Amino acid sequence: MNLLCEIGEAKSVAIAGHIRPDGDCISSTLAVYAYLKCARPDIRCVVFTQDNPPTIFSYLEGYDEMNLTYSPKEKFDVFIALDVSSYDRLGDALWFFEEADKTICVDHHETNPGLADVNEIRPYASSTCEVLYELFEKQFIDKTVAECLFTGIVHDSGVFQYSNMSRRSFEIVGQLVEYGFDGPKIIQDTFYVKSYVQNQILGRALLESILFMDGKCIVSMIDRKMMEFYNVLPKHLEGIVNHLKNTRGVEVAIFMYEMGTQRYKVSMRSNGGVNVATVATVFGGGGHARAAGVEMNGTYYDVINALSREIQKQM
Ligand code: 5GP
Ligand code: MN
Questions:
Q1: How far is the CA of 312 from the centre of ligand 2 (A)?
Q2: Taking the chain, what is the end-to-end CA distance rounded to the nearest angstrom?
Q3: Hey, where are the domains in the chain?
């Protein structure tokens, strides 16, 4: 796909990622925003974000311009969906997507069916930001764009740790750091540093985790009472599932938090033996082979039992 050709003569472009935005989502939307400012300053661009983006990303240019309120409703010539693999994950931005004259989707989720009129979905890329780097014309990449792309790759690869990092991903990171931003500071401040209560709740999640299936699976849950006690929001729980997975012998880690009465948000991580995207898809979720998520109804035990049955089929 040639992104600028696909945008063509459009006068207005809406950009959006997914609900409960993560690092790759925030970074990819702001990267496209900054890129179009450079390449097509004549276009009116709006970046939508459904939920308050994590403040750790406030150093990214354009962060303060992200649009949280969706009125007045305006139709856009082009809508660019980034890092989104299903319509429901667009949240309220879905209305703008449906009303746009043309839709474009850039993503790296293998469960993405091709949501838009024009799609660039690369399941082997580490992140949406990596795909964007390949699509961007190099003369329009500046320090701002590079900093966004770097941040997205860092977050979706767990600081270059996961198997989604290919030789090409490392080459791209190498090219990005040439732009002169402070990469180590970004990694430290946005990935490793957590608030005191976040570390406390991480401790609780690890302490109360349970091994099952002969130690091949681990699960932990944070209920609403605990979230209220520590005064944390769902976005503060990101990363806990990765800690669970770093348990020797564990092939699949499951972390969930209570979203509402008998409703859970589930995050799964796998070492590759079990495809957790397949498991998540059974219940209407999605993601990648080694990292996937889904929202499920039922009691905590209903959810574990349902997931276990699907995981067992692959073991
Ligand atoms: P996380 O566990 O970090 O929330 O998400 C892991 C991966 O699964 C991400 O790539 C994310 O986009 C995807 N994912 C998480 N939750 C859902 C969901 O409810 N539906 C779909 N389709 N994908 C999800
Ligand atoms: Mn991503």
A1: 27
A2: 38
A3: 3-192, 196-312
Distance 20 CA to ligand 1 centre (A): 10
- Closest ligand, as measured to the CA of 107: 2
Q: Do domains 3-192 and 196-312 have the same CATH topology?
A: no
Instruction: Look up the CATH number of domain 3-192.
Output: 3.90.1640.10
Question: Contact 272/291 with Cβ under 8 angstroms?
Answer: no
Please say whether the beta carbons of 254 and 217 come within 8 A.
yes
Cα–ligand 2 centroid distance for 26 (angstroms): 10
Beta bridge partners of residue 254, listed in sequence order: 219, 268
| C-alpha 172 chain-centroid distance | 19
Atom of ligand 1 lying closest to residue 156 CA: 10
Residue owning the nearest CA to atom 16 of ligand 1:
293
Instruction: Give the global pTM.
Output: 0.91
Distance 139 CA to ligand 1 centre (A): 33
Closest residue (by CA) to atom 10 of ligand 1?
A: 287
Is 196-312 in CATH node 3.10.310.30? Answer: yes
Q: Kindly state if the Cβ of 89 falls inside 6 Å of ligand 1.
A: yes
Nearest CA to ligand 1 atom 9: 287
Q: Say how far apart CA 141 and CA 128 lie, in whole Å.
A: 16
**294 Cβ below 6 A of ligand 1:** yes
CA-CA distance, 176 to 141, in Å (whole number)? 9
CA distance 309 to 315: 10
Rounded to the nearest angstrom, the distance between the alpha carbon of 127 and the centre of ligand 2 is 5
- pLDDT by position in tens, the chain (length 315): 999 999 999 999 999 999 999 999 999 999 999 999 999 999 999 999 988 899 999 999 999 999 888 777 889 999 999 999 999 999 999 999 999 999 999 999 998 999 999 999 999 999 999 999 999 999 999 999 999 999 999 999 999 999 999 999 999 999 999 999 999 999 999 999 999 999 999 999 999 999 999 999 999 999 999 999 999 999 899 999 999 999 999 999 999 999 999 999 999 999 999 999 999 999 999 988 999 999 999 999 999 999 999 999 999
